[in-house]
C-alpha cells in the first residue's frame, strides 16, 4: 500500500505542477521560460559604459522577483494538494478497513450459516432415508396382502364356479325330469284349462273383435282457489314453516287465499293484491311467535334475551 501511495502522489503532483506552470502568467513572464541566449564574446578592445551595466543588473533583479513569488505560490499549492491527498488517502484507507472488517464478519456469518445448512441438510436427508425405508416396508406389506387376497379371490371364484356348475347340472336334470313328468300327465289327462272350462263355462260366447272406445268428458278436478294458490306459488309466497305438532294452525296458502279474497272484495288492484296479502300474512305470523320470557328479569341473560333481534341475528 505504501508503494502505491507514493506512486499516486508523485503522479498527481507532477500533473498539478505542469498545469500550474502552463497556466501561470508569472512563469510565462519569468526569465526561466525564456530561451537562454549565448553571451556575445566580449571584445576587450570595446569600451563599456559603467552606468549601462548597473541598469542591466537592476533589470535582471526585477525579473527574478516575480519568479520567486511564483515559486512560493507553487510550493503553497503543492502543500495544499499534499494535504488533500493525505486526507483522501486516510478516508479511503478507513473505508477500506471498515469494508474489510464487514466482509470478514459476513464471511464468518456465511460460514456459520453453511455449517447450520449442512447440519439441516444432513438431518433432512436422514429423515428422507427413514421415510423411504418405512414406505418400502409398507409397500412390501401391501404387495403381500394384495397377492394373498388375489390368491384367495381366485380360489374362491374357482370354487364358486365349480359349485354353480354342479348346481346348474343338478337343476337342469331336475327340470328335465319335471318336464317329462308333466308331459306324461298332460298326454294322459289333457291340458288343465280344459277342466276349468268345463267346470266354469262362460256366460257369453267369447269374441275376438276389438271393443269400440267410449269417449267421456274429462271431469274437472281443480277448484277456484287453486288458480289463486298457483299465483302465490309462482311468486314464491306459498311456502312457509309449518308446526306439525299443532292441528289448529292454518297453512300459509289458506291464509293467503283468505287475504286475497278480502282485498279483492275491497277493490284493490290485481297487481297489488299478491304483495299486500303476503305482507299481511307475514305480519300475522310474526305476531303469533311467542316471546321468550326469563325467570329472573334482572339477570344479564334476561337482558340479552329481551334485546335480541332474532329476525336480523345473522346480519349483525
From TrEMBL:
The keyword Mitochondrion applies. Residues 177-285 form the Small ribosomal subunit protein mS23 conserved domain. One of its GO terms (biological process) is translation. It is found in: Mitochondrion. One of its GO terms (cellular component) is ribosome. Pfam families: MRP-S23 (PF10484). Residues 139-188 form a coiled coil. InterPro entries: mS23_dom, mS23_dom_met, Ribosomal_mS23_met. Keywords: Coiled coil, Mitochondrion, Ribonucleoprotein, Ribosomal protein. It comes from the Eukaryota. GO terms for molecular function: structural constituent of ribosome. Residues 24-46 are annotated as: Disordered. Belongs to the mitochondrion-specific ribosomal protein mS23 family. This is Small ribosomal subunit protein mS23. It comes from Manduca sexta. The lineage of its organism: Eukaryota, Metazoa, Ecdysozoa, Arthropoda, Hexapoda.
